[in-house]
Each structure stands twice: as C-alpha cells, then as structure tokens.
Write a structure and sequence with these properties.
single chain, seven-stranded mixed β-sheet, four-stranded antiparallel β-sheet, binds pyridoxal-5'-phosphate
C-alpha cells in the first residue's frame, strides 16, 4: 500500500558512479520509487512523435487577456518583483475570501485563514507534511492524483485507498468507513476528481463528514476543478457542511480555472490552528512564489460570473465532443460529471493493457493519452482504463479523434 505506482514506465536510472556491489543508490528512502511522473513521460513521447497530446491536463490556450495584462502591469510597476508577504499579497488573500463567499457562501478571514501556495501541489504537500506524522494513515480516494502518493510518502504516512470503482467510479461510504482505523489521521479528498471525473454529491460529502467527525479526523480537500462541473452536478465544498469548517483544509488553484497552469498560484484555506501547521511546512518549501502573478490572480478571481459560466459551458461542450468521438470509435466511455478528463475502457477495441496502449499510441497513431494504472493503489484496477484530456481546442480534439481512426493498425495485446 505504500508502494507508488507512477514510475512504471520509467524505472529510476542507475545511480551515477555506482560501479560495484554495496554501492548505495543516492536517493533517500522517502523518494524511492517515485520515478518520473507519468505526465512528463507521456508528454516526452508526444513531442518526440509529434502526437496530438490528449494526455497531460494543461489547456492549449492561455487564460483571459486582461489577467495576463494585470501580470504585465504588476511586473512593470516595480511593486511586485521582490518577496511577497509569506501568506501571499493581501489583495489576493482578500480576493480568495471574496471568491469563496461569492461562489460557495463561505466566509473566511483573509488575514488568518488564507495561505497563498505554489499551486495546489504545494498546498497539498504542505498540508501532508504539516499534519501527518510518520506512521499516520491517510485515507484517500483511489485512484489518486499522483502528487498525493508522493506527498504521503514524503511525510512518512501510510496511504489507505477508498476505491471509486469502475465502470461508474461512484463513491461508496461503506468503503470509507471500512478504511478508517485508530491510526487514521487525515482524509484526503479530491472533488471534482482527477482522473475519474466523479463529483461528490451533498450526500456523499455528508457521509464523509460524519466519518471525519466521529473519528476526529482532519480533511484535506483538493478542489482545483471547483468551477468545472457539468450537467446537473454541483460543486459543494465540504468545509461548508456542519462541523466541518474547523477540521478542513480546502485547497484550490488558479491554474485550471483560468487556464494559467504555469503560474502556479494556489491557496489553502483553513482555520488558524490548522493553517499554522500547513504554513510551517510551506514556509520552508518555497517561502513564497509568483510575486507579480498574485495581484493578477486577484483580478482574475473578481472576473464577472460570465467568465465562469462560459468556462463551464465551453468545457462541457468539449467533454461531449471528446466523449462522443471516443464512443463512436468503440471505447466504453465513462461520462465525467466534472474536471478535465474522460476515462475509457479499452477492452471493446481488443486491447487489455492501458500502459502498453499509451506507450504505443504516440508512435502508431500520433496521439498521447495517460494510462489509468498510474493513478491506482493497485495498478491492476486501472489496467484496462485510459484517461483523455478535453482541455484542448475543439480542432485539436477533432484532430486527435481523426488520428484515432488508425487504431486498427496498432499492435494488440
Ligand atoms: C492539476 C491538478 C493539481 C495541480 O494544481 P497546481 O495548481 O498546478 O499545483 C492538483 N490537484 C489536481 C487534482 C489536479 O488535477
């Protein structure tokens, strides 16, 4: 259970200079097996073969011009090129608090309950490092975003999966209850969920809250896709449920919401005592980052509702375009209620190993995708599943689908 799964296609390179038995690999135990993230691995193959990259989940167009202009202004103003305050620039912390109120009806104190982080990735890592002692169990939805595995391992925690099982990847509260033991310290949630697209309903979250309260657990919740929910799905922050604000660290990021993933502006929201633990770790990871991007993201968070509505409808249309196309090609498609990704079962097309499928795809078909097994506690659970990103322009989705017509020529097995 503590083994990681993201390094399958890229075993660690041999230790430099290691030339005899007894030579110790330079990596410490806490990074052993973490390898290279699957996203980097597949993106390298995509570039090498000129493939349409439906693998890594970054948008292929930049976020709003006015937000980019705000960053340019901040760069030129000369006020934002040195270390920002440790918690983040006040205007951004206030904008994060306003955003939390406007969209979720949650009141947070921008001075004591908001911490700007280097993306959600650092927020999650700092929460794990700040709140988990070696040997503590961390219960997380399985499959997982791959940085969770690394963060839990770096903290010395023990990962305990709660499976969102195919084909529908639904949350099962019975599995959650069974996963909690006296050693459980923390529940790590992600909704809307990467890679499955599951959005936890109000009932699901009430069940999670009941378990957290009964067992006095901290909940760390990654909500980077909070604005990307489709059809009738609704994003409900668990921090808003009764009894939860005081035990929840809510993490989000500007990357996915504003199509500015390279800026790495994220945040953690929590009551003072919990946030202090997160800050203790965060301040010695990066201290601060993204000076001129911080006021620009403050501007972004205050964009009118039309921006957020348009984002949602655009992405919903792209989801449909990709899901319909994959369905027409013969894949078994799970329609995601949120996020950036469609998952498919590859068996109807005669394939049965998603890793091999994704390794072969760029070269034989000219498309890149991500094998699900990289995300699962037990890689066998994700063996037949492949994840495709629809955070791409429609012409790119169409080009990818067009190329996938060549799948017939790809080796089976
Ligand atoms: C993309 C992603 C992140 C990374 O967010 P950054 O702000 O880029 O660090 C974190 N969690 C999930 C679930 C993601 O999909």
């Amino acid at each position: 259970m503590t083994e990681t799964t993201t390094d399958q296609p890229s075993p660690d390179p041999p230790a430099p200079g290691g030339d005899g038995p007894g030579d110790r690999a330079p990596g410490a135990a806490r990074v052993r097996g973490l390898g290279t993230t699957i996203f980097a691995e597949m993106s390298v193959r995509a570039v090498h073969h000129g493939a349409v990259n439906l693998g890594q989940g970054f948008p292929d167009t930049d976020g709003p011009d006015e937000v980019v202009e705000a960053a340019v202004d901040a760069l030129r103003s000369g006020d934002h090129n040195q270390y920002p305050p440790g918690a983040g620039v006040p205007e951004l912390r206030r904008a994060i608090a306003r955003h939390q109120d406007r969209f979720h009806g949650l009141q947070v104190d921008p001075d004591t309950e908001v911490l700007v982080t280097t993306g959600a990735t650092e927020g999650v890592a700092a929460a794990l490092l700040g709140l988990v002692d070696p040997g503590d169990e961390v219960v997380a939805l399985d499959p997982y975003y791959d940085s969770y595995t690394a963060g839990i391992q770096l903290a010395g925690g023990v990962r305990v999966p709660v499976t969102l099982a195919p084909p529908d990847f639904a949350f099962d509260p019975v599995r959650l209850e069974a996963a909690v033991t006296p050693r459980t310290r923390l529940l790590l949630l992600n909704s809307p969920h990467n890679p499955t697209g599951t959005v936890l309903s109000r009932d699901d979250l009430a069940a999670v809250a009941a378990v957290a309260i009964a067992n006095d657990l901290v909940v760390v919740t990654d909500e980077v896709y909070e604005h990307l929910v489709y059809d009738d799905a609704e994003h409900v922050p668990i921090a808003g449920l009764p009894g939860m604000a005081e035990r929840t660290v809510t993490i989000s990021s500007a990357g996915k919401t504003f199509a500015l993933t390279g800026w790495k502006i994220g945040w953690a929201i929590a009551p003072e005592p919990l946030l202090a633990a997160v800050r203790s770790a965060k301040q010695f990871l990066t201290y601060v980052s993204g000076g001129p991007f911080q006021p620009a993201i403050a501007h972004a968070l205050d964009l009118p509702d039309a921006y957020f509505d348009n984002l949602r409808s655009t992405m919903e249309a792209r989801r449909d375009r990709l899901a319909d196309g994959l369905d027409a090609l013969g894949f078994e498609v799970a329609i995601p209620a949120g996020g950036y990704f469609v998952s498919t079962d590859i068996r109807p097309l005669g394939f049965d190993d998603g890793m091999q499928f994704c390794l072969d795809l760029p070269e034989h078909v000219g498309v890149a995708a991500i094998p699900h097994q990289a995300f699962w506690d037990d890689p066998a659970m994700g063996r037949r599943l492949v994840r495709w990103s629809f955070a791409k322009q429609e012409s790119v989705l169409d080009a990818g689908l067009e190329r996938l017509q060549r799948l017939d020529a790809m080796p089976r097995g």
